[in-house]
Amino acid sequence: MSVGSTVPESLPPPASPASCQWRAQWIGKRTDPAHRIVQSLTSDQVAWVEPGHWLGQTFTAPGRFTAVGLDLVGEPGTAVRGRLELCGPDGTVLADQVVERGIVRWDRFAHFVELPDALDAGEHLLRVQAVVGRLGWSTLSEPAPAGVDDGVSPLPVMGRAVRDGVGEPGVRAIGVETIPAPNPVFRTSFEVPGEVREAELSAVGLGYGEFRLNGRAVTGDVLEPAQTTYDRTVLYRTYDVTALLRPGLNTLTAETGRGFYAARGANTWGWNFARWHREPVVLAQLEYVDGAGERHVVASGPDWEAAEGAVTSDLLYVGETTDPARARGAEWEPVLVVAPPGGELKPATAPPVRRTELLAPVSSTPLADGSVVHDFGEVLAGRIRLTAVGEAGAEIVVRYAEQLDEDGAVHCRNPLAAGGTQVDRFVLPDSGTEATWEPRFSYKGFRYAQVLGRAAVTEVRAVRLRTPVARVGEFECADDVLTWIADATARTFRNNLHGVPTDTPVYEKNGWTADAHLATEAVLHHVDLRESFGKWLDDHVDARDESGVVPQIVPSPGWGRAADPAWSASVVLIPWYLYQEYGDPAVLERYAEPIRTYTDRLLDLAPDGLWPHHSWGDWLSPGHHFAPEGPMPTATMMLRHVASRCADILDVLGETGAAERYRAAADVVATAYHQRFFDSGSGTYRVPGVGYRQAVNVLPLAFDAVPAEHVAAVAEGLFADIEHRTGGHLDCGAVAAKHLLPVLAAHGRPDLAITVATRRERPGWGVWREAGAATLMESWDETARSHNHYFLGAAAAWIQQAVGGLRPTSPGWASFDVAPILDDRVEWARTAHTTSRGRAAVEWRRSDGTWELEVEVPEAARAAVRLPGHPETSLPGGRHALRLPVATTRPGGDHQPPEAPKAQTPP
């Protein structure tokens, strides 16, 4: 078994959030141009090239470089193929790459040429040749005039745009990834005259900052601040540091990591080319009151010093290299006072990420190359802490993965990012002295860690990093697969809550909008998300474009900006889920304008009701990335869902006239969908030439878009497909999988919902449980990339509500149903939920023809017990015990109601 222990934290607590009166200035360390990115990001036109011709851009690399990225454009819906070539000054091709239509490659700075070995500084040419179809390269017609170099910002592209070797005006959108400088560290020293009554430090380091007073950490928080759209919002925290100050000389130190602000390493999302990118910067202000009551301020400014720190490499998707000996000999120099990052400074209110547990490996297996693979027994998010002794300069390499290859070595390859994947390195600083090390500015998703080095590694532990959100729910039932789905959904989500809810801690670390809105209802049963998702909804507002469209990942460096109602519906749906859970309309009031603006824009883009643009659709249905039916059906139904929820939200806010307009728009969408996809011969929805698809029928049933006279036929078609074509299995992707089980139950087949949910063969959740997994995988297929991906757990909401038997029926749980389903395969369940009104719970068992229920109702709520074949029983606040006969049923689901039940309230 895994050995776990709580990580001790004898550290100062955070002070109450407050708006600091800033006297501090933003500071950075002057960085050699050889280690800064070269880029031209903006464009006002697209230069197109036909097959047989090429476009290029010359550039001068100021230092050794490892990759070059560019902003290519492909014509939608057409086959595109070309070739990227990086050439030396004499025209020699140094690296090349095929460019063709892919899943994620056609977006801002999604393409890059990775070099097998770094190239030297000097002039080079990047060119793209069209082979099939037209290729476009975003271009700025008039290069911006070069400003004064501030010492920390990216450098402008020095070169010329070319076409078939002939120069033309402008500069192409291009970015050159040089070898980054070591992460900087900043410090100041100051005298404290005597006793300190109170002291607070308000501070932020971008990308991440760690602050120490007199060598002691001011907080146990890690990976701070949480990721934001940095030119819109920057978050800081305030810490009580009274106990860390001392009379006499004190030293305040800030060490920075790159994070998403100063990200390095080429990647498909273009985080290294975000518009806010600079070298790491710091803002810090310490205020203390001395024994005489006088207030003192120590603020970052020109009197601070900077030096290179011990982290010599910090790449977003790779990892860290730490060489403490290098930092010992670092030369301190005056800092640069730099311009603010542009975002409004706000106190952070969402819970931070912290070390929560140290895990010992359950097994450690030596390999032939001398490395040791440590298995921690479960997939988690965090990093390794190890202790080693050896010769000074010996390097220890740690590679992390969720899977092993056939030889037992860790297997983790990320084609979306350059360089290695999840690799940390530590260089021993002293000979013969034990050193304990843990990476500080990154986290990984892993079950296995492979450790190799010319040193004796005496201890290896996994450090679990989690956001300490309150646990509010419990669920367990007689079926182990159903219990596992609920537990695994919560566990996987918590592995992905690091500043934003990410899709995977390994491959992307992105806040994919659909992943979260699909799973929110299920996850709210487990954890309190008011603060975490409040922060992320603010990120949605910051990330919008000028028309109100929310990108597909939030925050975004500029990638994924196209509207997609199946994905960025999160800006509408998550506020609604939070309102339903907590009962506070303030969340709807706060986001009413973004909700309305976003919905308006979607409706404008689909004037006839059908969604004609790109969408991820019913992503990752079994055997597919994009669903065979194409994106239109799912995106159109999600457009109806968004418009309907917008209407519901405006109703709550008292805007009934506006609500009716959105409801009418939702009906237009439903009518267009029915006219386009309904097949009168079969009585089901179909896409011509594709055959029956579950998602195409599940979603209109889920969103009340089927004309009343056709509902029964559409539902029967779904039942028949599951019972006969798929043998009791689902055949849909992430969007429809959330709605499939409740649709089956709502239309009279809860038994079929249980059948689908408990399949132990692929596709289905049970196969993962049978394999011993504790977390959800990214897709139903054996080739699932990520083993730590929560969006396929969205169906857990129905399991908790229908099998567990607790379902809220009014906002904030003012009323709720106790309504477990009747199915012989599930004979008991217990579920509890801490609501904003108190604890709601039910424990039920069915045996010998009798229901036995114990129900707990918060004092300010009422519960309705609804059992098949029985009239409703209303329960007030308190604890109640009920014992009722199981009603007999006839084929077709009709029930013979027995005598009305009587509640028994125990003393």
* Cα end-to-end separation: 43 Å
Q: Report the major sheet.
A: 12 strands, mixed
Query: What is the class of the largest domain in the CATH system?
Result: Mainly Alpha
What's the β-strand tally? 55
Rounded to an integer in angstroms, the radius of gyration calculated over CA atoms is 29 Å
Task: Determine the mean pLDDT.
Answer: 94
Unreliable sequence segments: 1-14, 890-907
β-sheet strand percentage: 25-35%
**CATH architecture classification of the largest domain:** Alpha/alpha barrel
Structural class: alpha+beta
DSSP helical segment count: 14
Helix content: 10-25%
CATH topology of the largest domain: Glycosyltransferase
Pfam family, one: Bac_rhamnosid_C
Catalytic activity: Hydrolysis of terminal non-reducing alpha-L-rhamnose residues in alpha-L-rhamnosides
Domain Alpha-L-rhamnosidase concanavalin-like: 368-456
Domain Bacterial alpha-L-rhamnosidase N-terminal: 195-357
Summarize the structure in words.
The protein has 907 residues and is α+β, with helices and mostly antiparallel strands. It has 5 domains: 35-178, PHR domain (Jelly Rolls); 181-346, Jelly Rolls; 354-466, Jelly Rolls (Sandwich); 473-801, Glycosyltransferase (Alpha/alpha barrel); 804-890, Maltose phosphorylase, domain 3. Helices cover 20% and strands 34% of the residues. It contains 14 helices and 55 strands. The strands form 11 sheets. Strands 1, 21, 27, 28, 32, 33, 34, 35, 38, 39, 40 and 41 form a 12-stranded mixed beta sheet that branches. Strands 2, 18, 22, 24, 25, 30 and 31 form a 7-stranded mixed beta sheet that branches. A 6-stranded antiparallel beta sheet has the order 9-8-11-5-13-14, with no helix packed on it. Helix 5 (570-582) runs antiparallel to helix 6 (586-605), helix 7 (632-652) runs parallel beside helix 9 (694-702) and helix 9 (694-702) packs across helix 11 (734-746). The longest helix is centred in the last third of the chain and has 22 residues, at 656-677. The radius of gyration is 29 Å and the shape is globular. The model is unreliable at 1-14 and 890-907 (pLDDT under 50).
